[in-house]
Amino acid sequence: MTLTVLAVDDSRTIRDMLRLALTEVGIEVHLAEDGVDGLERLAELEPDAIISDINMPRLDGFGFIEAVRLQDRHRATPILVLTTESAPELKARARAAGATGWIVKPFDPPKLVQALRMVTG
Amino acid sequence: MTTPDPMAEIRASFFVECEELLEALQDALAHLAEAAAEGGAADPETINVAFRAVHSIKGGAGAFGLTALVAFAHGYESAMDALRAGRLTLTRDGAALFFRAADLLADHVRLARDGVAEAPAAAANLLDELGALCSGDGPAEAADEGDFVPLALPFDFDAAGAEGEATAEGEAEDEADLQAKADPPAGWLVRLRPGPGFYASGNEVVHLLRALAALGPADIVCERRDLPDLADLDPEAPCLGWRIALAGDVAEGELRGLFDFVEDRADIEVAPAAADEAEADEAEADEAEAEPPPAPLEPAPAPASVAAPAPPPAEAAPSLAPDTPAPGTAPAPPLPAQGIAPAILPTPASAPAAGGVEAGATVRVDVDRIDRLVNLVGELVINQAMLAQSVAEAGLPANSAVATGLEAFMMLTRDIQDSVMTIRAQPVKPLFQRMARIVREAAASVGKQVRLRCEGEATEVDKTVIERLADPLTHMIRNAVDHGLEPPTARRAAGKPEEGTITLSARHRAGRVVIVVADDGGGIDRARVRAKALERGLIAPDAVLTEAEIDNLLFLPGFSTADKVSALSGRGVGMDVVRRAIQALGGRISIASDRGRGTRFSISLPLTLAVLDGMVVRAAGETLVVPLSAIVETAALAPGSVSPLGPGMGVIRNRGSFVPLVDLGAELGFRPPLDDAAGRIVLMTAQEDGSRAALIVDEIVEQRQVVIKGLQSGYGRCRGIAAATILGDGRIALILDPGGLMPQPGQRLPSGAAPFPPVPPPPEFHPEPRPAHAG
Fold it and tell me: Hey, is the C-beta of A75 within 8 angstroms of any chain B C-beta?
């Protein structure tokens, strides 16, 4: 079954790279530019997993994840956080917001795919 | 459309994005600096915008292994973070430092784009300064600098993912990994006991178990010791544990890596199988009676019972409840009391309908393609003109179908052209931001405080115009800082604020764009300008010059009012070079100055370099095109309306003022001057500075759009001639530059001879290419 992933990042470059990395292995990718956009896209999607940046305009990654978790149908949708820092407190905050796991930027495509497959089964 | 290398494309688009981010950064810094100067509090969102810009540049740069850029961006980001966290308050000096850092970041980006690996020279110093700035306000910051080691990960899809395991996360795993590799154990015993929040964070045991099983033959046992009675059961709280005996040669790092995401949400024990055997036996015995024989989990394909995609925890149990064949594979919290509902699987039916195309508001297009389109449209315009000519020559009546069709065709052509031009149009904002940097650097090097005010940044101008405007504008800005503004002491003495202001503005006016560089400095010292011009032999000692004429002396080649040669503007200032550059763009520059209050340079430019609306006229048998934007009105000269001023020169009275008369045929050297201008047709032209001239022509042919074809590469620059065009009949016509035909004070007065020297006049004629002025 094709995985469907919603990826939220305010950097076009990172979005492009995510799209490339994921479509390359047959994952269907939907992209959003920030948290607000992400929530809008999410309303019309049923993604198997969500990838989200932290630093974003309008609604940051923490806010986005919290909002996603408040939606009944996404209470358990795996959410991977993309972050440049691997600082423990950032991880803890993302975790507290409801993130499933994290990927350190710059991400390694096979590792990202592996992590996605892992959290989605 | 071919896409040879997607990564190269992303890389290119990264640098485009960088430019946008740098622009956003400049904007944000300008706001912050403003707030700092006024002593107000910085807007947190503005700080965030600046932070994100630097952060995104760093993130993208990391992906491409641009280590110098990443390192600098990281240092800058740390300072930005200190600002964001309130550990640092931006002072005026701090803001200046942030600006310099932004400039240097831009340098980094450009170097990286051009494939230069080294950092710009000043990078290390500036980072130190930033660090010092931050540590001065908050001691915690400096220590933070060292811990980020930029990773240059190969973006290679063929690379094995397992190797990347340890790079991103934790050194502990690394060590463990090494150890494990040195002495591979026969197998592992893993205990997994999900704790609170495990499922709420979207993690799923069955996925973990499957990933484990994929590493090697796994013997998985579900521990149900802590399973409460149904009545006490919290349906969402984890209450099962698992014990996994993993056989085979698996590195500990790899094994632990699987639990990366859940390590603080679950109790996880990983031990070599042999060491833990006794305990394991004990545990097994403990549960032996309650447990069916553990079912070995096949690595692949996955058992049917777990094939469903991760269901929400509340639903997971019911879906698996009816027949749970292998306890070892049961992923979910146990049967909740209310969960008698039939098996519910997530229904992804609605997902594909949403469509996978990203709704983008913009498209990025290679400039070459647009240029090609512009050229083609130019050809189309010429072609259409030729067609119109043929139709006219065929003698078809004006109301024939061909004629009306042609008219519609003309309108369409014009629409297409306008649309294509808007594609090439860009706001002047990036150009203005570059000037902001020039101002900062120039001000710092001459020790003046200068504020740049920008107006009309959204004004759109043809991309080529913008590009070619950068150099002359840089000269002018440097001049304004260096010569225009007085030193702080003089300003104070004059009762002005020490900080000088330079205003850079752009606006559209009558189909052209007008760019103004104004300073609030001392204005032009006309006595000194005059003395200088005399000294250099540029004017005759007895020449009578108006103020405007003296001001215009600045544009003469080699003129300089600066007594001291400063490092900044160099010798000769180069306003003549500036003027030539502007003229090469089909533009004109004028100057206005108010003693003690400042100087103002206005540049008027065509919106595009590709086409213009022109009046086709004939003079002395030649067909010429006069830009429509320069023409105010046309008139026929009545006898006696010309007041002669000298041989071959006269003025006419027009709307209450006298306008110099220019005999086009004679001016361009086609024929000798007319004896009597009476009855002739004149085109009244006006310039941005208000000066006017009346051009005598023989005939007005028509008004039409013409495609501009440059002449300068082949013929050099001729005064009064802007370019050429191809007419409908295939002939070439010169496009005039009415501003160049205006009487030039600096030229006619010193010579005292013919006011309109033959073309090309010596001071204006410069064979191209001419060495660029070094400034």
Answer: yes
